[in-house]
Amino acid sequence: MSNTTGPHSLLLTSPNLPPVSETEAKVWYYGLPSRPKLIARTGSVLFALLPSFDAGYPDYPETKEIRIVGEHKIQDVWEDGLASKIHALLDEKQVDWTSTDVVRIAAVERWKDLRSSVVLWIGVVPESLSYERGVDVALRCQRVLVDDYGIEDVDVEIRTSSVVKAADARPRLFEPASCREDNEKRLEVMEPLAYTLGIQICGRDTQEVEGTAGFFLNEKGEGDGGRLLLVTARHVVLPDLDDDEGFEHKEDPEERKQCDVLVLNDASFKKHVAAVEQAIWLRDRSVDYSKRDLASMLNETGERAEERRKATQKEGEQAEKAADLLTDYRVEVLQHWAISEDNRVLGHVIYSPPMDVDPTSGYARDVAVIAVDPDKVDPASFPGNMIDLGGEHSRIDLRLMMPRNPKNVHPFSILFSRQLGLRGIVPDEEMRNPVDYDEDGNPCIAVLMRGATSGFKIGHANSIFSYTRDDKGRVSKQWPILPIPKAKLRNNSYDHLRTTFGKVGDSGAVVVDAVGRVGGIVACGAGDRKCEFDLTYVTPVGAVLDFVKTGKGLEGVKMREGPDEKTLEEQFFRKR
Q1: How many domains does the chain have?
Q2: Is the dihedral of CA 407, 409, 412, 413 positive or negative?
Q3: Would 521 be classed as within a structural domain?
Q4: What is the pLDDT of residues 258-315, one digit of tens each?
Q5: At what angle do helices 303-332 and 266-296 cross, to 10 degrees?
Q6: Range of the domain at 116
């Protein structure tokens, strides 16, 4: 791409860019998870494909990614009037908009050259806005930035985007695995039935909608007694309830039917059992291959041959141990979980406020409280909220992917255990003014999540809050989470070039910072494909707890804090 010259003020009377071509519309956001379609934009960067150096191959687009804004004067005015003016302008022009975000977007290879690539990013319903109307709206939005606020280094881009809700003697939930070898595939297949956070849940009568359990609460605060509660997004467990209607559990079944919550719907449970059986089969094959390899080495002599024998024997022993563990797990699942749907009941919904927008905070009241069945998780012995760091990344890779800035107040550390205890919360003020930094010195909160669909993910929280607009025209504030920059990834496969933080099915999942402070729960996401999100939106924990405490008898609830690092370390060494 090449640059034209001229100040931003030249854009305020007429666009100096040619109309968006069909090719530009399709590939301008190449590299983003949902690859939305560009409608219109301001700015001075001309679109051009990169030339192919291989004869016979077509030219190709630059790979883009989204990053946090960092320090910028737009942050001081965005929530203090600017966003409202933009929304009013969009409504005046009858734009069917879905979200407004402020982010940096640029080609992966050109980040150092494009430090001013800040974009007011407007999402609209697909097929609802033409280029002609779109470019007029974009220019009018830029007039607001320049004329009303003196902001001349922010471009306006309009793209197709839908804001999607991210919901896709009974046996106890399993205790999580304490550790793993970094070079061994984690037994991640067992995690869906463990009590670490990221549990896949659904309403018993609405199994077509699945989401993720958020975090556990003590009903009586720090005092003994009371039930163990769980908070999640309302639309996960009460998708059919009218938004204007609150929910309160009644003991009398004639007043209101109990809303049970399941761990995994029927289809997901069958899929889980099949995944366990597949994992056992793979490890059995590994054991067989190791035995064959050892047999073929019997006549080999020398130091190198002995080293190969030891390595092969160790691999076989590890695979056999894993197969035995998984086999025992499979027996437990089939004997106690598969015999009845009743055995997958995690608890029942006891309270959910009407899902409108709170006029004071501006956040949607998208929360529901679940009373956890004590036969599933014993409140007395439950160690507290923990997120499992297991997945495809080793502990060393995790450390390399997290920000490493000596100024950070909350640095990520390599843990002996693969669990991270949740302790404390991220204050609202810190979400907007982070005290930690990325490697480039930008204020940044790195966040972690384990979603039922996405698994374990790392992202960067944007300090400039976003706004979403639902199909009823209700506008709510959101804490936006961006995918981790591609340069930080420890895997270069094609799938990882299209990084996402959240997907459909992650609604309700808890989002925490590098030291386990709770930031909030996933509410929804924005993208042009309904399964993958370019941005994931989170309801801050302060608002979540405020909404929960409006329930009768829930005024004293408090988050159930997880074990600290020292406790997890002691548990790790006891189990070795």
Answers
A1: 2
A2: positive
A3: yes
A4: 899 999 888 888 888 888 888 888 888 888 888 888 888 878 888 888 888 888 888 8
A5: 160
A6: 8-160
